[in-house]
Design brief:
Layout lengths: L2 E5 L2 E4 L4 E8 L7 E7 L6 E9 L3 E6 L7 E6 L4 E6 L8 E8 L14 E2 L3 E6 L1
Parallel strand pairs: 2-11
Antiparallel strand pairs: 1-3, 3-8, 4-5, 4-9, 5-6, 7-8, 9-10, 9-11
Amino acid sequence: QVQLVESGGGLVQAGGSLRLSCAASGRTFRSYTMGWFRQAPGKEREFVAATVWSAGSVYYAYYADSVKGRFTIVRDNGKNAVDLQMNSLKPEDTAVYYCGAGLISAQYVTYGREYELWGQGTQVTVSS
């Protein structure tokens, strides 16, 4: 069974850190784009970060402006996993965070509809 499972969410104070993990199983995702999205109550799902495979096994990272400099996406192909290290968290980062995977080129990584597989989500709550 091909699936993505997120973990690592929780409650943290503003300024704190959390590390989310997304474990993939059922296939190798080495050449797949792996992305993180989030959805806050009453809002649409929005792009957070993605790592995109390129020729020569080089991976490029992309970030939403709102998280650039605070979040880092970390890929571990040996574990078939991708993490999201979140630092300097703000209350507006509160959301359910989802991991997605798909064969997506760089110009489309921000479009959730391009991802073919999603995890169940993990809640992140940042208190002020």
